[in-house]
Amino acid sequence: MLIYFWVGLALAILVYSFFPAGVSEYFSFGLFQYIGECLRTISGATNVPLGEYIYLLIVIILVIKLIQSLSVLKNKFNLHSFWPDLLNFGKKLLMRLVQVYVVFMLLWGLNYQKSSPAQSFHLSIDTSYTEVQLDALSLDLISQLNLTRQNLPDSVIESLNYKQVFDQTLKEYKAIQNNYPFLHLEKPILKKAHFPNWGDYIGYMAFYQPLTGEAIIRADVPLLTLPFTSCHELAHQMGYASEAEANFIAFIVASKTSDPVFKYSMLIQMFTYSQSEQLSLIAKTGNFEKWKTIVNRNKTLLDTKVIEDRKKIKDFFIQRQHLLLPASTSLYDQFLQWNKQAKGIKSYDEVLLWVLAYNKLKAIQH
Fold first, then answer.
1. In this structure, are strands 206-209 and 214-217 parallel, antiparallel, or unpaired?
2. Residues near 84 by Cβ (< 8 Å), separated by ≥ 6?
3. How far apart are CA 235 and CA 201, in angstroms?
4. Domain parsing of the chain, residue ranges
5. For 20, which of 1, 115, 203, 290 could close a Cys bridge (C-beta 3.0–4.6 Å)?
6. Sheet containing 190-192, strands listed edge to edge, beginning at the edge strand earlier in sequence
Protein backbone atom coordinates (compact mmCIF):
# COMPACT_ATOMS: atom_id res chain seq x y z
CA MET A 1 0.00 0.00 0.00
CA LEU A 2 2.91 2.34 0.80
CA ILE A 3 4.29 2.05 -2.70
CA TYR A 4 1.03 3.39 -4.14
CA PHE A 5 1.26 6.40 -1.85
CA TRP A 6 4.79 7.27 -3.01
CA VAL A 7 4.07 6.64 -6.69
CA GLY A 8 0.85 8.65 -6.49
CA LEU A 9 2.62 11.53 -4.79
CA ALA A 10 5.41 11.43 -7.38
CA LEU A 11 2.90 11.54 -10.26
CA ALA A 12 1.00 14.42 -8.62
CA ILE A 13 4.25 16.40 -8.29
CA LEU A 14 5.18 15.61 -11.89
CA VAL A 15 1.82 16.85 -13.19
CA TYR A 16 1.97 19.96 -10.96
CA SER A 17 5.43 20.80 -12.36
CA PHE A 18 3.84 21.48 -15.76
CA PHE A 19 2.11 24.58 -14.36
CA PRO A 20 4.92 27.14 -13.76
CA ALA A 21 2.62 29.92 -12.56
CA GLY A 22 1.10 27.63 -9.97
CA VAL A 23 4.53 26.41 -8.87
CA SER A 24 5.66 30.01 -8.41
CA GLU A 25 2.62 31.14 -6.44
CA TYR A 26 1.94 28.14 -4.24
CA PHE A 27 5.32 26.46 -3.92
CA SER A 28 8.26 28.82 -4.53
CA PHE A 29 6.62 31.81 -2.83
CA GLY A 30 4.41 29.69 -0.61
CA LEU A 31 5.22 26.25 0.79
CA PHE A 32 8.96 26.44 0.04
CA GLN A 33 9.32 29.64 2.05
CA TYR A 34 7.89 27.94 5.15
CA ILE A 35 9.92 24.77 4.60
CA GLY A 36 13.10 26.79 4.11
CA GLU A 37 12.49 28.91 7.19
CA CYS A 38 11.88 25.81 9.33
CA LEU A 39 15.05 24.13 8.04
CA ARG A 40 17.12 27.27 8.61
CA THR A 41 15.71 27.65 12.13
CA ILE A 42 17.10 24.20 12.94
CA SER A 43 20.41 24.40 11.05
CA GLY A 44 20.91 28.02 12.14
CA ALA A 45 21.26 26.92 15.75
CA THR A 46 24.93 26.13 15.03
CA ASN A 47 27.72 27.56 12.85
CA VAL A 48 28.65 24.03 11.80
CA PRO A 49 27.73 23.39 8.13
CA LEU A 50 25.42 20.47 8.90
CA GLY A 51 24.75 19.93 5.21
CA GLU A 52 28.32 18.83 4.53
CA TYR A 53 28.22 16.25 7.31
CA ILE A 54 24.84 14.98 6.13
CA TYR A 55 26.22 14.44 2.63
CA LEU A 56 29.25 12.68 4.14
CA LEU A 57 26.96 10.44 6.18
CA ILE A 58 24.85 9.64 3.11
CA VAL A 59 27.96 8.61 1.15
CA ILE A 60 29.16 6.39 4.02
CA ILE A 61 25.75 4.73 4.31
CA LEU A 62 25.58 4.13 0.53
CA VAL A 63 29.04 2.54 0.53
CA ILE A 64 28.12 0.29 3.46
CA LYS A 65 24.84 -0.71 1.80
CA LEU A 66 26.67 -1.48 -1.45
CA ILE A 67 29.20 -3.68 0.31
CA GLN A 68 26.43 -5.47 2.23
CA SER A 69 24.44 -6.04 -0.97
CA LEU A 70 27.44 -7.45 -2.81
CA SER A 71 28.21 -9.70 0.15
CA VAL A 72 24.65 -11.04 0.25
CA LEU A 73 24.69 -11.54 -3.50
CA LYS A 74 27.94 -13.48 -3.28
CA ASN A 75 26.82 -15.72 -0.42
CA LYS A 76 23.30 -16.38 -1.65
CA PHE A 77 23.87 -16.43 -5.40
CA ASN A 78 21.67 -19.04 -7.01
CA LEU A 79 21.39 -19.37 -10.76
CA HIS A 80 17.78 -20.57 -10.53
CA SER A 81 16.63 -17.56 -8.48
CA PHE A 82 18.82 -15.01 -10.29
CA TRP A 83 16.06 -13.33 -12.30
CA PRO A 84 13.51 -13.20 -9.45
CA ASP A 85 16.21 -11.78 -7.16
CA LEU A 86 17.19 -9.23 -9.80
CA LEU A 87 13.54 -8.22 -10.28
CA ASN A 88 13.08 -7.82 -6.53
CA PHE A 89 16.23 -5.69 -6.34
CA GLY A 90 14.96 -3.55 -9.22
CA LYS A 91 11.63 -2.96 -7.45
CA LYS A 92 13.38 -1.88 -4.25
CA LEU A 93 15.72 0.42 -6.16
CA LEU A 94 12.82 1.98 -8.08
CA MET A 95 10.97 2.58 -4.80
CA ARG A 96 14.01 4.35 -3.34
CA LEU A 97 14.38 6.51 -6.46
CA VAL A 98 10.70 7.50 -6.29
CA GLN A 99 11.13 8.47 -2.64
CA VAL A 100 14.27 10.49 -3.40
CA TYR A 101 12.41 12.26 -6.25
CA VAL A 102 9.49 13.21 -3.99
CA VAL A 103 11.69 14.47 -1.15
CA PHE A 104 13.98 16.40 -3.52
CA MET A 105 11.11 18.05 -5.36
CA LEU A 106 9.29 19.08 -2.18
CA LEU A 107 12.39 20.43 -0.46
CA TRP A 108 13.86 22.20 -3.51
CA GLY A 109 13.44 20.71 -6.98
CA LEU A 110 10.05 22.23 -7.82
CA ASN A 111 11.75 25.65 -7.84
CA TYR A 112 13.32 24.68 -11.16
CA GLN A 113 9.83 24.51 -12.64
CA LYS A 114 8.52 27.90 -11.54
CA SER A 115 7.82 30.73 -13.96
CA SER A 116 10.51 33.23 -14.85
CA PRO A 117 10.91 36.19 -12.46
CA ALA A 118 11.44 38.50 -15.45
CA GLN A 119 7.96 39.99 -15.01
CA SER A 120 8.77 40.99 -11.42
CA PHE A 121 11.67 43.06 -12.74
CA HIS A 122 9.65 44.34 -15.74
CA LEU A 123 12.13 42.78 -18.14
CA SER A 124 11.76 41.32 -21.60
CA ILE A 125 14.48 38.68 -21.95
CA ASP A 126 15.80 37.84 -25.42
CA THR A 127 16.72 34.27 -26.28
CA SER A 128 20.18 35.12 -27.59
CA TYR A 129 22.74 37.89 -27.85
CA THR A 130 25.02 39.10 -30.61
CA GLU A 131 28.76 39.56 -30.59
CA VAL A 132 28.21 43.31 -31.02
CA GLN A 133 26.02 43.43 -27.90
CA LEU A 134 28.61 41.55 -25.88
CA ASP A 135 31.39 43.81 -27.14
CA ALA A 136 29.50 46.91 -25.99
CA LEU A 137 28.74 45.24 -22.65
CA SER A 138 32.38 44.26 -22.14
CA LEU A 139 33.57 47.80 -22.82
CA ASP A 140 31.02 49.20 -20.37
CA LEU A 141 32.08 46.67 -17.73
CA ILE A 142 35.74 47.54 -18.28
CA SER A 143 34.95 51.18 -17.65
CA GLN A 144 33.05 50.34 -14.45
CA LEU A 145 35.77 47.94 -13.30
CA ASN A 146 38.50 50.55 -13.68
CA LEU A 147 36.53 53.26 -11.92
CA THR A 148 35.48 50.99 -9.04
CA ARG A 149 38.99 49.60 -8.55
CA GLN A 150 40.54 53.07 -8.57
CA ASN A 151 38.25 54.01 -5.68
CA LEU A 152 38.92 50.78 -3.81
CA PRO A 153 42.06 50.95 -1.63
CA ASP A 154 44.35 47.93 -1.58
CA SER A 155 44.14 47.96 2.21
CA VAL A 156 40.39 47.29 2.08
CA ILE A 157 40.89 44.25 -0.16
CA GLU A 158 43.81 42.95 1.89
CA SER A 159 41.84 43.20 5.14
CA LEU A 160 38.83 41.38 3.69
CA ASN A 161 37.75 38.13 5.35
CA TYR A 162 34.90 35.70 4.80
CA LYS A 163 33.00 36.71 7.96
CA GLN A 164 32.90 40.36 6.86
CA VAL A 165 31.59 39.26 3.46
CA PHE A 166 28.90 37.03 4.98
CA ASP A 167 27.73 39.75 7.38
CA GLN A 168 27.66 42.37 4.63
CA THR A 169 25.77 40.02 2.29
CA LEU A 170 23.00 39.70 4.85
CA LYS A 171 22.87 43.49 5.18
CA GLU A 172 22.74 43.94 1.40
CA TYR A 173 19.82 41.52 1.09
CA LYS A 174 17.94 43.34 3.81
CA ALA A 175 18.55 46.67 2.04
CA ILE A 176 17.53 45.43 -1.42
CA GLN A 177 13.98 44.85 -0.16
CA ASN A 178 13.49 48.62 -0.23
CA ASN A 179 13.68 48.49 -4.04
CA TYR A 180 12.38 44.98 -4.56
CA PRO A 181 10.02 43.88 -1.72
CA PHE A 182 9.62 40.41 -3.26
CA LEU A 183 13.33 39.72 -2.58
CA HIS A 184 12.44 38.85 0.99
CA LEU A 185 14.20 36.09 2.90
CA GLU A 186 13.51 35.04 6.48
CA LYS A 187 16.44 33.83 8.57
CA PRO A 188 19.10 33.70 5.82
CA ILE A 189 22.11 31.50 6.53
CA LEU A 190 25.64 31.61 5.11
CA LYS A 191 28.14 29.08 6.45
CA LYS A 192 31.82 28.47 5.88
CA ALA A 193 32.55 25.03 4.42
CA HIS A 194 34.47 22.66 6.69
CA PHE A 195 35.60 20.57 3.72
CA PRO A 196 36.47 23.14 1.04
CA ASN A 197 38.77 20.72 -0.76
CA TRP A 198 35.72 18.73 -1.86
CA GLY A 199 35.09 21.60 -4.25
CA ASP A 200 38.39 20.96 -6.03
CA TYR A 201 37.26 17.45 -6.95
CA ILE A 202 33.55 18.04 -7.52
CA GLY A 203 33.89 21.54 -8.98
CA TYR A 204 32.06 24.08 -6.83
CA MET A 205 32.72 27.28 -4.91
CA ALA A 206 29.53 27.04 -2.89
CA PHE A 207 26.27 25.12 -2.82
CA TYR A 208 22.73 25.25 -1.45
CA GLN A 209 21.89 22.28 0.78
CA PRO A 210 18.17 21.49 0.35
CA LEU A 211 18.10 19.11 3.33
CA THR A 212 19.19 21.81 5.79
CA GLY A 213 18.39 25.06 3.95
CA GLU A 214 22.01 26.20 4.30
CA ALA A 215 24.17 28.11 1.82
CA ILE A 216 27.62 26.57 2.31
CA ILE A 217 30.55 28.51 0.87
CA ARG A 218 34.24 27.81 0.47
CA ALA A 219 36.37 30.39 2.27
CA ASP A 220 39.65 29.22 0.74
CA VAL A 221 38.87 30.79 -2.65
CA PRO A 222 40.13 34.27 -3.62
CA LEU A 223 38.21 36.62 -1.32
CA LEU A 224 37.15 38.93 -4.16
CA THR A 225 34.96 36.13 -5.50
CA LEU A 226 33.09 35.72 -2.21
CA PRO A 227 30.71 38.73 -2.32
CA PHE A 228 29.16 37.69 -5.63
CA THR A 229 29.13 34.00 -4.69
CA SER A 230 27.45 34.75 -1.34
CA CYS A 231 24.77 36.85 -3.03
CA HIS A 232 24.23 34.07 -5.58
CA GLU A 233 23.75 31.42 -2.89
CA LEU A 234 21.24 33.51 -0.93
CA ALA A 235 19.24 33.84 -4.15
CA HIS A 236 19.08 30.04 -4.24
CA GLN A 237 18.03 30.05 -0.59
CA MET A 238 15.20 32.39 -1.58
CA GLY A 239 13.96 29.88 -4.17
CA TYR A 240 15.63 31.07 -7.39
CA ALA A 241 16.87 27.68 -8.58
CA SER A 242 18.01 28.62 -12.09
CA GLU A 243 21.71 29.51 -12.14
CA ALA A 244 21.10 32.42 -14.52
CA GLU A 245 18.34 33.80 -12.29
CA ALA A 246 20.44 33.39 -9.12
CA ASN A 247 23.29 35.18 -10.90
CA PHE A 248 20.93 37.98 -11.89
CA ILE A 249 19.66 38.42 -8.33
CA ALA A 250 23.31 38.64 -7.21
CA PHE A 251 23.91 41.19 -9.98
CA ILE A 252 20.95 43.29 -8.81
CA VAL A 253 22.02 43.21 -5.16
CA ALA A 254 25.60 44.19 -6.04
CA SER A 255 24.44 46.88 -8.47
CA LYS A 256 22.37 48.64 -5.80
CA THR A 257 25.02 48.47 -3.08
CA SER A 258 27.18 51.34 -1.87
CA ASP A 259 29.88 48.83 -0.91
CA PRO A 260 32.64 49.01 -3.56
CA VAL A 261 33.92 45.51 -2.75
CA PHE A 262 30.55 43.93 -3.59
CA LYS A 263 30.20 45.96 -6.75
CA TYR A 264 33.74 45.14 -7.82
CA SER A 265 33.23 41.41 -7.18
CA MET A 266 30.10 41.46 -9.35
CA LEU A 267 31.80 43.42 -12.14
CA ILE A 268 34.70 40.97 -12.27
CA GLN A 269 32.28 38.06 -12.66
CA MET A 270 30.10 39.80 -15.25
CA PHE A 271 33.13 40.82 -17.31
CA THR A 272 34.44 37.25 -17.18
CA TYR A 273 31.12 35.97 -18.53
CA SER A 274 30.86 38.70 -21.15
CA GLN A 275 34.38 38.41 -22.51
CA SER A 276 34.23 34.61 -22.50
CA GLU A 277 30.95 34.53 -24.42
CA GLN A 278 32.11 37.16 -26.91
CA LEU A 279 35.33 35.27 -27.61
CA SER A 280 33.35 32.05 -27.94
CA LEU A 281 31.09 33.59 -30.59
CA ILE A 282 34.11 34.94 -32.48
CA ALA A 283 35.88 31.57 -32.29
CA LYS A 284 32.86 29.88 -33.90
CA THR A 285 33.37 32.10 -36.98
CA GLY A 286 37.00 31.02 -37.22
CA ASN A 287 38.21 34.65 -37.14
CA PHE A 288 41.07 34.14 -34.70
CA GLU A 289 42.74 37.40 -35.67
CA LYS A 290 39.71 39.24 -34.35
CA TRP A 291 39.78 36.98 -31.29
CA LYS A 292 43.35 38.03 -30.50
CA THR A 293 42.57 41.68 -31.23
CA ILE A 294 39.71 41.70 -28.69
CA VAL A 295 41.86 40.01 -26.03
CA ASN A 296 44.72 42.47 -26.53
CA ARG A 297 42.38 45.46 -26.61
CA ASN A 298 40.71 44.46 -23.35
CA LYS A 299 44.08 43.95 -21.65
CA THR A 300 45.16 47.41 -22.79
CA LEU A 301 41.97 49.03 -21.52
CA LEU A 302 41.84 47.29 -18.16
CA ASP A 303 43.49 48.96 -15.17
CA THR A 304 46.71 47.18 -14.10
CA LYS A 305 45.24 46.39 -10.70
CA VAL A 306 42.15 44.86 -12.25
CA ILE A 307 44.37 42.62 -14.36
CA GLU A 308 46.32 41.59 -11.26
CA ASP A 309 43.14 40.81 -9.33
CA ARG A 310 41.73 38.72 -12.16
CA LYS A 311 45.04 36.88 -12.53
CA LYS A 312 45.02 35.88 -8.84
CA ILE A 313 41.55 34.45 -9.25
CA LYS A 314 42.44 32.64 -12.48
CA ASP A 315 45.67 31.23 -11.05
CA PHE A 316 43.82 29.80 -8.04
CA PHE A 317 41.59 27.66 -10.24
CA ILE A 318 44.29 26.76 -12.76
CA GLN A 319 46.40 25.32 -9.93
CA ARG A 320 43.50 23.04 -8.98
CA GLN A 321 42.01 22.13 -12.33
CA HIS A 322 43.90 18.81 -12.47
CA LEU A 323 42.00 17.67 -9.34
CA LEU A 324 38.56 18.05 -10.91
CA LEU A 325 36.85 14.73 -11.57
CA PRO A 326 35.58 14.72 -15.19
CA ALA A 327 32.50 12.71 -14.21
CA SER A 328 31.40 15.36 -11.70
CA THR A 329 31.27 18.04 -14.41
CA SER A 330 29.30 15.78 -16.74
CA LEU A 331 26.84 14.77 -14.02
CA TYR A 332 26.22 18.36 -12.92
CA ASP A 333 25.82 19.44 -16.55
CA GLN A 334 23.22 16.68 -17.04
CA PHE A 335 21.48 17.57 -13.76
CA LEU A 336 21.02 21.19 -14.88
CA GLN A 337 19.69 20.08 -18.27
CA TRP A 338 17.15 17.80 -16.58
CA ASN A 339 15.99 20.80 -14.58
CA LYS A 340 15.01 23.13 -17.42
CA GLN A 341 18.48 24.63 -17.95
CA ALA A 342 19.10 23.50 -21.50
CA LYS A 343 22.67 24.78 -21.69
CA GLY A 344 23.75 22.88 -18.60
CA ILE A 345 26.82 24.42 -16.98
CA LYS A 346 26.77 27.15 -19.62
CA SER A 347 23.47 28.28 -18.05
CA TYR A 348 25.46 30.46 -15.65
CA ASP A 349 26.46 32.63 -18.63
CA GLU A 350 22.82 33.24 -19.55
CA VAL A 351 22.75 35.93 -16.89
CA LEU A 352 24.12 38.15 -19.68
CA LEU A 353 20.68 38.07 -21.35
CA TRP A 354 19.22 39.40 -18.11
CA VAL A 355 21.92 42.05 -17.71
CA LEU A 356 21.41 43.27 -21.27
CA ALA A 357 17.64 43.47 -20.71
CA TYR A 358 18.17 45.30 -17.41
CA ASN A 359 20.57 47.82 -18.98
CA LYS A 360 18.12 48.38 -21.83
CA LEU A 361 15.28 49.10 -19.39
CA LYS A 362 17.51 51.39 -17.35
CA ALA A 363 18.48 53.34 -20.47
CA ILE A 364 14.80 53.79 -21.41
CA GLN A 365 13.90 54.96 -17.90
CA HIS A 366 16.66 57.56 -18.00
1. antiparallel
2. none
3. 25
4. 2-113, 117-365
5. 115
6. 190-192, 214-217, 206-209
